[in-house]
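Data availability (excerpt). The following record was deposited with the supplementary files.
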Amino acid sequence: MVELGDGVVGGCGDRSVLVTGASGGIGTVTVLRLAQRGFDVIGAVRTERKARALVEVAAARGLWLRTVVLDVAEPGSCRQAMERVEEMTGGGVWAVVNNAGIPQAGALEDVRDEQARHALEVNLLGAMRICRLALPGMRRKGAGRIVNVSSGLGRVPWPMGGWYSASKHALSALTHCLRIEMAHAGVRVCLVEPGAFATAMLERAITDLTDAGRAGDTPGYAASRALFGSVNKRVPGPEPVARAIEQCLSAVRPRARYTVGLDARLLVPLHTLAPLWLSDRIKHRASGLPRTAEVPPRCGDG
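Predicted structure:
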């Protein structure tokens, strides 16, 4: 049986999991995998239409899950949704997977304040807001799991995607602090860092680059769009990320950090160990950004 958010409470009460950003990509694959593994899954989506679509996808596979409408960028929506989740689970979820995210690609010079704030609300503040709202129930249970989905680009800052890298880098730092702060309460906190996988995220990044105000003649835009498009065609689907998230929830002693994807496992140590000039050169080449300014002609030159 499949229920919407106002349906019958059921499933594994001590294995209830809220997954944000459940309407596509990593989120959808994750909620379906967890439901198949017997977790009591609540998929958080932004509209009732997306909620119905997610339930239909699950029903087609014979899976049971519930949904709640939640916009992580809106504090009021987060409070209302988490109150509803507490009612649905009879005291709060055992685990939270903060998966919702947006890319906000573009040169830092071209990203407006409101765009940057929205990226931080979705990728960073919203995730920590959900943690804060879920923790009282976890404390009462004396146990819980929090899985924050960051990105390999949180440790490898990438040109033309600076706000995304910044938000994910900050999420990594806060997750580290939260893991230490909550250990005494029986709440285990994990960070999952995916590399590139075939989801709508890369497609949205390409749209961001296309929509940027000066995209027509600014260095880096054409090459970055081509890079993202090429990567999106070559990388696998997000199933490996869903497996890592499941491991965070299933392992008795989950690791603090799971880096998923060949590109992330290569780029992270390369960025950490390689000299800065080499890392810069790789990024310049990949993004199509010139390393030096064009020298203007001197007066008197033909």
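Summary of structural features: The domain at 13-198+237-275 is CATH 3.40.50.720 (Rossmann fold).
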